[in-house]
Design a protein that fits this description.
Blueprint lengths: L3 H4 L13 H10 L4 E5 L5 E6 H5 L10 E4 L2 E4 L3 H11 L4 H4 L1 E2 L10 H11 L3 E6 L2 E7 H11 L1
Antiparallel strand pairs: 1-2, 2-5, 3-4, 6-7
Length: 151
Amino acid sequence: MLKAKDIMEKDVISVTPDTDITRAGEMLLKNHINGMPVVDNENRLIGILCQSDLIFQQKEVPLPPIFVLLDGIFPLASSKRYQEALEKSAAITVEKAMVKDPVAVDPDMPIPEIAKLMVERHFHTIPVVEADKVVGVIGKEDILKVLISKD
């Protein structure tokens, strides 16, 4: 049975949290990839940045609903979520736009389990991590290539 290590891209394109958001977007487009790992100086996975994270910046962040009673204003939604959405939409570095604590897989994870994870969690890109270091990345195209080669 094929495993992550058999199909993963070993030449990983990654960014650091302090990478300029425009530069990160250019890297995604230039390399025709949907997402890339965000790593620290020791190549440890700390986040993931996907095209959808950059597209989020174009989304208008609606004001949270409020309830007014006797000159008192009471928020009806989490102000923390509103603050996070506001920061993400105004991000100028990868750190503010990335997904923190991303899901990663082990090099020995079987492909059917990775495919299931991608479908159930709506992932397009999954980092492959071994001994706390990013050693590869798997995208939906990699899974499709396996399916096509079976036929």
